[in-house]
Amino acid sequence: IPAEEYAEDLLKAMRTRKPHHHYNKTAHIFDYTAPLFFNQGPLSQNSFAEGAVMIHLDAEPLEDAIRWASLRFWGTVLGGALVFVVVAYGLLNRLVLRPIEAIGKIVGEGRDSADDAWKSVLTDNEIGAFAHLLRNAQQDAKIAFQKLENQRYAMDQHAIVAVTDKAGRIIYVNDRFCDISEYSREEVIGQTHRLVNSGLHPKEFFTEMWQKLLQGNVWRGEICNRSKSGRLYWVDSTLVPLVDMDRKPRAYIAIRTDITAQKEATARLQESEALFRDLADNTPVLIWMAGLDMKHFYFNKRWLEYTGRTLEQEYGVGWMQGIYAEDVSATVQRYQEAFERRVPFTVEYRLRKADGEYRWFECTGVPRFNRIGNFIGYIGGCTDIDDRKHAERVSAEARKVAEAAAKTASEAARVKSDFLATMSHEIRTPMNGVIGVAELLADTPLNESQRGYVETIRTSGETLLTIINDILDFSKIEAGKFTLENVPFHLVQAIESVLSLLSVRAKEKGLELLMSLGESVPWMVTGDPTRFRQVLLNLAGNAIKFTSKGSVTIRVCQQEVKGQRGIRVDVMDTGVGISAAAQAQLFQTFTQADASTTRRFGGTGLGLAISRRLVELMGGEIGLDSSVGEGSTFWFTLPLHDPDSEQSKIGVGTQTDIAATDAPADGLNGVRVLVAEDNVVNQKIVTAMLGKFGCQFDVAQNGVEAVRFFQERSYDVVLMDCHMPEMDGYAATSEIRKVEANRSGGKGRVPIIALTANALKEDLDRCMEYGMDAWLTKPVRPAELRDKIWLWLGDRRSGE
User: Fold this and answer.
1) What is the pLDDT confidence band of residue 80, given thresholds at 50, 70 and 90?
2) How far, in Å, CA of 206 to CA of 192, rounded?
3) Looking at 1-10, 41-50, 623-632, which range is the least confident one?
4) Which residues contact 386 (CB under 8 A, 6 or more apart)?
5) Whole-prediction pTM value?
6) Which residues are CB-contacts of 729 (< 8 A; sequence separation ≥ 6)?
7) Inter-helix orientation angle 782-793/680-693, to 10°
8) What is 383-394 written as a DSSP string?
9) Which helix (H) or strand (E) holds 718?
10) Which pLDDT score is estimated for 416?
11) DSSP 3-state percent helix, strand, coil across the chain (nearest 5)
12) Preceding peptide of 779 cis, ω within 30°
């Protein structure tokens, strides 16, 4: 049978996409042709089916049988022969033609293997067996095609895919090709890859690639392409030739991966490395890098120039040959500890220079980690610290000298402090006798001359005491041992107390002593009331001293001080005034307006210097405005601190208000007092005062006797001198407190009031530490002694 007929039937079935049957009478062949279709997909959208099935049936035996049957029954059974032909043809049609046609239709329609249509053809004869094989083949083909589709889909999601014919013309591209090239599929199909050529690769690059492909080999490489907008992008390409039976390429598949980001990262890394090397080689720091094994593999240009060695010589642990022998052990140990713990470290060692000189370097190393966090070694830098080391050596020597000087100064300060304490005690003790006796004499019947003598003694003693207080205050300030209180106090009452103290002196000179309060001046403030009164008393006392007629006025107003609310106090007088030249020196130590001032008015010149220091310590300023013959105005400012509501009760428990408590004249009758005092004069003065108050008393000559008296007798108050022979007042107080703790049925804690000639704060604090309750500074005044005993008697005043 001519092949053209078969080809014509096959092409007709595939073009029309419908089954076709034909009976060739000459060749006695029955043909049935049907197209084959698989699942629809992007690769099947064309005018041809994926294939066709053609079934040939040899009808010649059947024809021979019919012909012989016809001849055999020709004459006699013509009708039967005709029936036989019809029946035979019907059987042929039913058993062969119609099942084959049904199979072709089922296959042509792409019925699923589980479809009921297959049941009609899955018979027990040969046609059914054929249908069974055909169904299984169709199912396998669908599964294989589905796998192929899945692989193609996965590849399209990851890779850039293009298919070309053997001439290099593009016949297929996926979506990723269009996305990265920025060309549509219509713009690409039929073109060659010259469409995206970047022009960066030489012609030899593509020549070598095509030579390999034409030989049927796979080509791999990196190609830089250019998109439609002109953007360059890099792809990692695999080109696969599709060859025929003769291994001649009939098409090409290109599978590419976008590596633009990696190429850019690599370029940036290369730029960073180049920049690092430029910086490392031009920095004055000696830079090194080491791997996981602690061996150094990089040294910058500065290191090699300093040591005068090559990279090969320094490589590994060779660099350690340049370390000073005494520094090697500590350096290695520090390196090992850091590498084991993978932490930054710093070590100092001496490194040999190319000329043989050793210089000190401070080496700092930090661990390096890659992007996924794995430790990869260390990088470090060494800085020349030889000059600093030399300076440290010089500084250490200077420090030793300074420490020796400081020790000497400290010893001098201690000696000075001890001297001041001793002098305070030694001077105040006789002063206590002088002033005390003068006050006692003043209360006895005296004629006018005698009273004048006594007043002279008292005034001289007070003046000498003021000088002593000024010297002690100045010494405490200079020694940095001066502390300020911060308690609530009544501002107006503090001013009035100063006026009260100065009123007698002002009256004696015929001066008016006035006070003026501005608007919004608070009555209650927080600060150091004692030092406030001291400054005001000093300024107002000076004003009275240097004013012969007129008035002295204390004026208080509200004023901002260093950015916060505060007060200004002016002390105005109508005195002689002060020249501009003298004003510049007034607040300096041991300075007065002129040399004649001391002779005319007395004083040490410390008062204003102490006032300036006190005001500055309290956060304020001090100054004056004066003209010769027109009087002077001394002023000072202080920041204002309002007291908290819980502290609004002025002076509760403070030394200032204890002294202000007035005891009745007969309030101490019958009070039993133990006086511990070794100085005979002080004994007489204190006992004379107690006798006037109506107290009963015993006198102990030292601490041991005081403790014994306290054990044997009952007392309401103890007056304890701090410095006594055999046992001082501190130790005696401790022993008395022990006696109280062991005594049963007692009347509770007996107040112990210290009598001390030391006015330094640390001495007063020491009294409290040893169990004393209060103190009186010598010289002791009768009113102060009376009020102090009255305050600390407490419930004992009721006679219980």
Assistant:
1) low
2) 13
3) 41-50
4) 359, 360, 361
5) 0.37
6) 676, 703, 720, 721, 722, 723, 754, 772
7) 60
8) EE-HHHHHHHHH
9) strand 717-721
10) 65
11) 50, 20, 30
12) yes
Residue 40 is predicted with a pLDDT of 44
For residue 10, the Cα-to-chain-centroid distance in whole angstroms is 84
**Sheet strand arrangement including 358-369:** 296-299, 286-290, 375-384, 358-369, 345-352
Per DSSP, the three-state class of 640 is coil
Q: Which residue has the tokens 């003026």?
A: 516
Tokens linked to 599: 């002779």
The rounded percent of the chain whose pLDDT value lies above 70 is: 71
Give 394's contacts (C-beta < 8 A, 6+ positions apart).
Answer: none
pLDDT in tens, 545-558: 889 889 999 999 98
What is the percentage of the chain residues whose pLDDT exceeds 90? 28
Question: Tens digit of pLDDT for each residue in 223-251?
Answer: 999 999 999 999 999 999 988 777 788 89
Place of tokens 């595939």: 14
| Identity of residue 327 | D
- The answer on pLDDT for 648 being more than 50 is no
- State residue 463 phi and psi, 5-degree precision: -65, -45
**DSSP string spanning 220-286?**
EEEEEEE-TTS-EEEEEEEEEEEE-TT--EEEEEEEEEE-HHHHHHHHHHHHHHHHHHHHHHHSSSE
Token representation of residue 303: 């290191």
Distance (Å, rounded) from C-alpha 118 to C-alpha 504? 139
Distance CA 530, CA 699 (A): 33
